[in-house]
Amino acid sequence: QVQLVESGGGLVQAGGSLRLSCAASGRAFSSYAMGWFRQTPGKERNFLAAISWVGDNTYYADSVKGRFTISRDNAKATAYLQMNNLKPEDTALYYCAAALGRGLRAAYDVDYWGQGTQVTVSS
């Protein structure tokens, strides 16, 4: 089993920045691809970004390219999402996710989810 705990959400003005953290425990952190998703009430959980431990490859949804950066620190068993130039439409509950033995590009790829952290961007 893998446990994921997000932190770093909060209230920020449009144009500002936040860094989300996802601390992993329970199994070897380096064995999993990691990703970030977000969801608003009544809507689907959408893919934002993913990082592969082998080769450190990254992939981003078009909506966040150039603004969000995913990274990892294996020594701390933690993944991060640096969010810059935030917009009101970025307001959502943000989830980190882990996938073993597959690519991480959609919710059905996910083996483990964090509990979510709220990000609110004011105008």
Protein architecture, described:
Helix content is 0%, strand content 50%. It has 123 residues and is mostly beta strands. Strands 2, 4, 5, 6, 9, 10 and 11 form a 7-stranded mixed sheet that branches. A 4-stranded antiparallel sheet has the order 1-3-8-7, with no helix packed on it. A hairpin with a 6-residue loop joins strand 5 (46-51) and strand 6. It starts with a strand and ends with a strand. The mean pLDDT is 93.
Structural class: mainly beta
The helix/strand order is: EEEEEEEEEEE
The helical percent reads under 10%
Q: Specify the overall morphology.
A: globular
Write down how many β-strands occur, each being a DSSP E stretch of 2 or more residues: 11
* Rg: 13 Å
Measured between the Cα atoms of the first and last residue, the distance is 40 Å
Beta-strand fraction estimate: over 45%
Largest sheet: 7 strands, mixed
Report the mean per-residue pLDDT as an integer. 93
The unreliable regions are none
Number of helices: 0
Throw out a few tags for this protein.
mainly beta; 7-stranded mixed β-sheet; 123 residues
